[in-house]
Write a structure and sequence with these properties.
The complex is a heterodimer of chains A (115) and B (114). By secondary structure, chain A is an all-beta fold. Chain A has no helices and eleven strands. In chain A, the strands form two sheets. In chain A, strands 2, 4, 5, 6, 9, 10 and 11 form a seven-stranded mixed sheet that branches. In chain A, strand 5 and strand 6 form a beta hairpin. Chain B is globular, with a radius of gyration of 13 Å. Chain B has 114 residues and is mainly beta. Chain B is built from no helices and twelve strands. Helix content of chain B is 0%, strand content 54%. In chain B, strands 2, 5, 6, 10, 11 and 12 form a six-stranded mixed sheet that branches. Chain B has a four-stranded antiparallel sheet with strand order 3-9-8-7, with no helix packed on it. Chain B has a two-stranded antiparallel ribbon with strand order 1-4. In chain B, a hairpin with a 5-residue loop joins strand 7 and strand 8 (64-68). Classes of the chains: A mainly beta (115), B mainly beta (114).
């Protein structure tokens, strides 16, 4: 158990809908990351938050947004869903501090199926 | 700029034989290097990491990796494969604080035959 908690574990929704994925980082971790993993694209970095502020953006679509709240949990909002958004969405967290070597700890993921 | 290349998309071994998963990296800085394992329908689990200490790094489940700066490689090995090692393995390079400065390889799927 990595200590990173994601909900829901599985989600099935229709095209055009909106969903919210939730993540609680490990205790004490200030950084939260979101990744998307699909068969054709592999593991893609979406976005990173550090202590409530956006730190870095990766391949995140404009239809997607995220935020990190004062209690450090994070939500990933996916809207106007398309079939191609079906994927496994991972949240991860890492400890505070700068410099290389910070290990990223992953949650179990949220399976999103768009039908 | 950083990059990481996992040289094999699939590796198949017999149970009890050695495992070698190859990874080459490119980094402008002194990198930190990681190997993660992902079992089916599971999250990524840290196997081991290198952060400029000993070049031979021991990880969990009998895996180890050797950092070779001259060859820019960080290959993952295990002396004897077990059926439970069948999974996807990701080589990762980082020279920052994580996130966008952390680059994941495309992954190597390890198959273990009985």
């Amino acid at each position: 158990d990595s200590g990173v908690t994601q909900t829901p574990k599985h989600l099935i929704t229709a095209t055009g809908q909106r969903v919210t994925l939730r993540c609680s980082p490990r205790s004490g971790d200030l950084s939260v990351y979101w990744y998307q993993q699909s068969l054709d694209q592999g593991l893609q970095f979406l976005i990173q938050y550090y202590n409530g502020e956006e730190r870095a953006k990766g391949n995140i679509l404009e239809r997607f947004s995220a935020q990190q709240f004062p209690d450090l949990h994070s939500e990933l909002n996916l809207s106007s869903l398309e079939l191609g958004d079906s994927a496994l969405y991972f949240c991860a967290s890492s400890a505070p501090g700068t410099g290389g070597g910070n290990t990223i700890y992953f949650g179990e993921g949220s399976w999103l199926t768009v039908v | 700029a950083q990059s990481v290349t996992q040289l094999d998309s699939h590796v198949s071994v017999s149970e009890g034989t050695p495992v070698l998963l190859r990874c080459n990296y490119s980094s402008s800085y002194s990198p930190s290097l990681f190997w993660y394992v992902q079992h089916p329908n599971k999250g990524l689990q840290l196997l081991l990491k290198y952060t400029s200490a000993a070049t031979l790094v021991k990880g969990i489940n009998g895996f180890e990796a050797e950092f070779k700066k001259s060859e820019t490689s960080f290959h993952l090995t295990k002396p004897s494969a077990h059926m439970s090692d069948a999974a996807e393995y990701f080589c990762v390079v980082s020279d920052g604080t994580g996130g966008f400065k952390t680059i994941f390889g495309a992954g190597t799927r390890l198959f273990v035959k009985a």
